[in-house]
Amino acid sequence: MPYTFSQIKRFGLLGAVIMASFQSGCIAESASESNSSDKNGPKNVIIFIGDGMGVSTVTAARIFDGQSKGMTGEEHSLEFESFENLALIKTYNTNAQVPDSAGTATAILSGYKTNIGAVNVPADLISARSGDVCNPYALPPTLTKRAKAKDKAVGVISTARLTHATPAAMYGHVVNRGWEADKDETGPMAQAGCKALAGQLIKSDIDIILGGGRKEFSDAQIDAWPGTVVGNREAMLAAPNDKPLLGLFNATHMSFEADRAETSEPSLAEMTTLAIDRLSKNEAGYVLMVEAGRVDHAHHGTNAYRALRDMQALNEAVKVAKDKAGDDTLIMVTADHSHVFTMAGYPMRGNPILGLAKGFDPKTQTVDLILDKDGKPYTTLGYHNGPNVREADSPALSDNMVQAPDFRQQTAVNLNSETHSGEDVPLYATGPGSENVRGVMEQDEIGRLIAEAIGAE
Asked: Are 106 and 222 part of one and the same domain?
């Protein structure tokens, strides 16, 4: 009898062997008991991925959201922080200490680690330069295919381009995540027959897929979609229920939440609401992946305000899922990786999270700006690397300056774009199967947990 992920996780390998033996022969199990056990697993699985949502981002978002509600912020909690099961997740790729979203999304959604930049192609095939890297029939099936094999409906939502690394890990296989559109099919891989992600998405069996990236698709590909294609919030809400739905709400990534009011784009919560309402009509259940993709993009630009506003959008989408999904749904919230995003400087409690660091001086019994060795104030939030380096001759910052939406926090190492970081990220879980989320886990264990939850190989 094969040993399941949950057995090994709960009892260890030896315990799993004993449990498997016990279940298969030591005590007879009636068919009715077996069926009852099957029914205790989740009917539906919802996985939220906050792209770049490391622990420091969660903490800052908690305070930011609380302060936007009139609190001091530190005592506040985000929706997913009430989930009863929690783990830390190791994020490295097979060939990278600090990962990217392609390798990490593959681990989360498909259950195996791979190289940085690769989507759903095992590292050993890449190293061997095997022709099978282009053969979807020779590659491990995507989560969409495994869910469909169990008659489950499938939904994919992202505020990034739908051909970006994380949503692509739901349906596609590419050695190079940059292969988003037909125009990217060049070189030896193209000669070997590899296809870009846009074409793979159109041929996938996804029921609902919503996000950005219209420019990556040809008109012929859009025409080949087997259902309804929409381009704005109103059309999405009016789309028929009985056809696959493709929503492309921006030529590239969808707008940051801070800028969305000026557009016709739906919110992450609205897309999540629609997806759950429609997917839940499927009697066998569903699998839904929801990505807050632009948290990552704001961090790369060292713009903490937009990162935290997109975290608020993710939080609202999680609240929708908590309210709408039943007790038969496993909900998980995690990140693919973290960022070199820091929160420091001894500010007092309740200090504006985007503001200058102000502290209480016990000698003078007063609150004042905390100054660096050059006599200049600094912000609570900052980045280890990226643009806008803090130099000795940098102008002094003011509260009005640093709390403006377009302010880019200062950095220590001068790079054109801020980078990911390699520390562990959190995984929050609730619902049937969530008891297996505990301790420190490898990232690919999440994918295997999802597979077991839907009864897939």
From this structure: yes
**HSE (side-chain half, CA atoms, 13 Å) at 118:** 23
For residue 213, give the CATH number of its domain. Answer: 3.40.720.10
Q: Please indicate, yes or no, whether residues 220 and 302 belong to a single structural domain of this protein.
A: yes
pLDDT value of position 23: 46
255 in a domain, yes or no? yes
172 lies in the same domain as 267: yes
Q: Residue 5 is encoded by which pair of tokens? A: 């992920």
Whether the Cβ atoms of residue 353 and residue 64 lie closer than 8 Å to each other:
yes
* Identity at 312, one-letter amino acid code: Q
Instruction: Let me know whether 90 and 189 are in one domain.
Output: yes
Checking if the pLDDT of 448 tops 70, the result is: yes
Looking at the structure, tell me whether residues 273 and 385 fall in a common domain: no
Q: What is the pLDDT of residue 362?
A: 85
| Within a domain: 351 | no
Residue 244 lies in a domain: yes
Question: Do 240 and 194 belong together in one domain?
Answer: yes
346, part of any domain: no
Q: Which domain holds residue 177?
A: 43-340+420-453
List CB contacts of 328: < 8 A, sequence separation 6 or more: 42, 43, 44, 285, 431, 432
User: Mean of the pLDDT values across residues 33-40?
Assistant: 43
Say if CB 318 and CB 46 are below 8 A apart: no
Expressed in percent and rounded to 5, the helix, strand and coil fractions of the chain are: 40, 20, 40
How many CA atoms does the CB half-sphere of 98 hold within 13 Å?
10
Q: Which helix (H) or strand (E) holds 13?
A: helix 5-21
Buried b (16+ CB within 10 A) or exposed e, 441-453: bebbbbbbbbbbb
Give the predicted TM-score (pTM) of the model.
Answer: 0.92
- What is the pLDDT, as a whole number, of residue 189? 86
d(CA 311, CA 305): 10
Q: Over the stretch 220-264, which tens digit does the pLDDT of each residue have?
A: 999 999 999 999 999 999 999 999 999 999 999 999 999 999 999
Rounded Cα distance, 101 and 92, in Å: 11
Residues 66 and 194 both lie in one domain: yes
For residue 34, what pLDDT is reported? 34
Active site (catalytic) residues: 101
Q: What pLDDT, in 10s, does the model give residues 70-110?
A: 999 999 999 999 999 999 999 999 999 999 999 999 999 99
> What residue type is assigned to position 365 of the chain?
Q
How many other C-beta atoms are found inside a 10 Å radius of the C-beta of residue 130? 15
Q: What percent of the chain clears pLDDT 70, i.e. is strictly above it?
A: 91
Q: How confident is the model at residue 6 (pLDDT cuts 50, 70, 90)?
A: low
Yes or no: say if 388 and 417 are a contact pair by the CB < 8 Å rule: no
Task: Count how many domains the chain has.
Answer: 3
Mean pLDDT across the chain: 92
